[in-house]
Amino acid sequence: MASIISLMTVGCSDNNSPDNPEQEQILFGDGTQIGNGEQEFDITQAHTLKKGTYTLKGWVYITDGASLTIPAGTIIKGDKDTKSAIIVQRGGKLYAQGTANSPIIFTSAAPKGSRKPGDWGGIILCGRAKNNLGEPTVEGGPDAMHGGNDDNDNSGVLSYVRVEFAGYPFKVDQEINGITFGSVGKQTKIDHIQVSYSNDDSFEWFGGTVDAKYLVAYHGWDDDFDTDNGFSGKLQFLLGVRNPKIADTSLSNSFESDNNGDGTTASPNTSCIFSNVTLVGPIGQASDFANTSEYITGGSYNPQNGSKTGTFQAAMQIRRNSKLNCFNSVAMGYPVGLLLDNQKGDTQGSANGGTMKINNLYFAQMTIIGSDVNKSWKDEYSTNGVDMTSGKESFSHTYFSAQTGNRYINLISDLKLKQPNSSLANPNWGPTSGSPLTGKTGLFDDTMLSSGFDKVDYIGAFKSDSDADNWTKGWTNFDPQNTDY
Questions:
Q1: 257: which strand partners?
Q2: Does the pLDDT at position 422 exceed 80?
Q3: H helices present in 391-465, as ranges
Q4: 21 neighbors 51 (Cβ within 8 angstroms)
């Protein structure tokens, strides 16, 4: 059982001082530490940090009825030796409200030049919204359940926040994601978040209803945006950018989506809706990576922590009865554009039946437009995700080509983006004058987009290449390895 202790840091104000002596505030070292280095540390009351720099040690749980408020400009460095992580349990709240000029930063405690994916755990939010598994324990190892019947549950705020070098593998194949959302409810505020160099997925949702806007997945190890177990949120303005040398043994996709692991029709169904997404894959980023078979993890970012190296696969892999929907988006430079995998469940049936929609998508410079079989990299037809019909175009390819507004472009350069693979000095993935992604009409005519979305006239995450339209400006960091914290 976790010990019941107040937040241990001098730079903290206790808003509800406990009467129980066992809960009295305890100081550690110079007062800039959160947690006691163990995996059983509970925050049981409402606490507000002072702005400053802190070291996070061990697993810190924000328990039911408790909260932790982190002010803008605060830096929290995750300790590697103690596998540090913040876990918000059901009923707990994390309030991390940064600003464009003063974001809140969760990063590695290692010095610049030596930071690696998986240097610390990450952030886990658990709520009481619905999922299709009941009340499961959250992925990654922590003792925290999620799920319930309150789709309007509130787990707090993450806004103008960066999460860097997270994803410590608690056990083999049990990495904590950069940010994990377990049955998080719709009243939670999620916007302007960048996850960089995560050792697993950058963002993963297990059920829940939470909406989000302005998310960046940068140089993650596994998937950028992973959706499972009945997630039904609405998400708009997302950017995913891959490093050609960082990929996972499970095959890295930008989108990966399941209804559940067995591909059943369990309710609620994964039915999230994405709009205005820009996905930048590995192809075209460097001449050294011209062949899809050569995208192998390596170099200075390999954490050497048991995480297995692998290759890239698809911009979008939708499988196991997921009904993920995506509109008004652009993806480029992946070995496979769209993979509708029927090995478990009938994802292709959902596509044919219109309960899953992929409309107004632009693909550019994919090795193949579609595939029906996981780990095949072949544009061949399959209805069971195993057996392929040689010489017959994949279902995924045919489906993509037939949907409203979808278009394939041979070269990334023909998208006319400012910097299609960008630079660390002045990153900008916005379309320039004459781009085929701008000046559109009717992008939000579908009833799925009638509420919860900003009605814009462009494909992808950005309106233009001007600074005024670059919503990543100011609060993001595309070179956290070399930043002094």
A1: 227, 318
A2: no
A3: 395-402
A4: no
What is the sign of the dihedral through the CA atoms of 450, 452, 457 and 459? negative
Q: What is the pTM of this model?
A: 0.93
Tell me the three state secondary structure of residue 137: strand
Task: For the chain, state the CA radius of gyration.
Answer: 22
Count helices and strands in the chain by DSSP H and E runs? 2, 28
> Which of 161, 201, 74, 235 is closest to 477 using CA atoms?
161
Closest CA relative to residue 255, chosen from 321, 167, 314, 192: 314
Q: Give the span between the Cα atoms of 34 and 307, in whole angstroms.
A: 27
Q: Which pLDDT belongs to residue 289?
A: 43
CA 110, 114, 115, 120 dihedral sign is negative
pLDDT band for 31, please (50, 70, 90 cuts): low
Per-residue tokens: 99: 């600003």
Close Cβ partners of 402 (under 8 Å, ≥ 6 residues apart): none
Nearest Cα neighbor of 250 from 161, 314, 168 is 314
Q: How far apart are CA 75 and CA 226, in angstroms?
A: 27
Find tokens 């652009």 and name the residue: 330
Q: So what's the pLDDT on residue 39?
A: 85
Q: Which of 94, 214, 243 is nearest to 461 (CA)?
A: 214
b vs e for 61-93, b when ≥16 Cβ sit within 10 Å of the residue's Cβ? bbbeebbbbbbbbbbbbbbbebbbbbbbbbbbb
Task: Give the count of alpha carbons within 13 A of 118, CB side only.
Answer: 22
User: Hey, which residues does 123 pair with through a beta bridge?
Assistant: 86, 179
Kindly give the pairing relationship between strand 358-364 and strand 325-332.
parallel
Range list of β-strands (E), 71-172: 75-78, 85-88, 93-97, 104-108, 122-126, 156-164
Q: How far is it, in rounded angstroms, from Cα 36 to Cα 253?
A: 36
CA within 13 Å, CB half, 258: 16
* CB environment 453-480: b (16+ within 10 A), e (fewer): beebebbbbbbbbeeeebbbeebbbbeb
Q: Any idea which of 3-12, 88-97, 461-470 has the lowest mean pLDDT?
A: 3-12
Query: Residue 198 corresponds to which tokens in the numbers above?
Result: 């995560």
Give the integer Cα–Cα distance in Å for 382 and 389.
Answer: 6
Compute the CA torsion angle 301, 302, 305, 310 (nearest 10 deg). Answer: 130
Please answer whether residues 29 and 49 qualify as being in contact, where contact means their C-beta atoms are separated by less than 8 angstroms: no
User: CA-to-CA distance for 173 and 23, rounded, in angstroms?
Assistant: 36
